[in-house]
Automatic annotation (TrEMBL):
Keywords from the named record: Membrane, Transmembrane, Transmembrane helix
Annotated source species: Psychrobacillus faecigallinarum
Keyword Membrane: yes
Name this protein carries in UniProt: Cardiolipin synthase N-terminal domain-containing protein
Bilayer-crossing regions: 6-29, 41-64
Amino acid sequence: MSVGDWLITMLIMIIPIANLVMLFIWGFGNPDPRRNYARATLIWMAISIVLTILLYAIIIFFVFSATSGMN
């Protein structure tokens, strides 16, 4: 892939819904030079979502435990 192709790829990655759709197309569609990049990006997105959910769950737990202790 040329530098121009990578610039277009990066441009697509900053468009909110299009990036997710294109990552699935590149990662699981026809063979594409961006296949490994797309799969790695999807894995990092999944890890980030799981860690964010865990962080919010921990914060909510501590907030509720702190407020219930005030009664």
